[in-house]
Amino acid sequence: MKEADWDRYVEAYHDGHPGITEEALQHARHPVHGSAYEWLADALPDPAGDVVDLACGSCPMQSHIAYSSYLGIDRNEAELTAARSAGRGPVALGDVTDLDLPDDSADTIVMSMALMLVPLAETLSQVARVLRPGGTFAAMVPATGPISIQDVPALLALTAALRGPGSLPRQLSRRSLERHLVNAGLAQVRVARQRFPFPLTCDTDARLAVTSLYTPGRTPGQLQRAERWLTAVPGAAQLPVPLLRVTARLPR
Ligand SMILES: C[S@@+](CC[C@H](N)C(=O)[O-])C[C@H]1O[C@@H](n2cnc3c(N)ncnc32)[C@H](O)[C@@H]1O
User: Is the CB of 50 under 6 A from ligand 1?
Assistant: First the structure.
């Protein structure tokens, strides 16, 4: 799919499903790290100072950060309405590739589950411009691993029903992320990966699993089949949510 088609798809998807990323990631809890949002927050400075949450969605990160000031930015109005309805914010409508923020104005910039959706060089150059020297950037994106042997039956069911496990505009590897961060002038890059188990105990879990994926080009029949097949996986079925977390600092 072309970049412009992806942009339209993602916009329409979030119009129809505001807050769904939060719902799915809160369901996939790690026994030690808790939710993926808690895991991302663990990598932030404490206190985090003036924080900007890029592509904030419903602002699930906010309650996990010890901030002096917080601003969430997203270009989807439905997501921002979900954030406000949950008593979060302030939030502002904006595009991460063209931030209406002064230079050197944030101590911490966080970006959860969105770097794979946006042009990297443009976004990271905005991050480097808005961060104060010594400031921290932390992001989390979907990864291809780790997964565990117990994930295989559900992964096979999902992949067979959807002809692939969902889609993304770009799959970011550890290496490409490191390269882009360094090119943008960021340093001290640290990368970690973690698998968050998404339990499939009932029809509702299967529906959330399928609905929370980007599935451009899939028919309603394929989506329903994916739900049915996930519900039918025997035993304590679960899907893996493998994530990659990256942190970097702007040199002083
Ligand atoms: C998968 S959701 C993640 C939301 C939230 N950060 C979370 O982790 O729950 C991706 C978000 O990125 C936003 N987004 C995509 N492209 C964007 C852009 N160029 N500028 C601002 N927001 C963008 C979407 O509107 C959506 O809310």
Answer: no
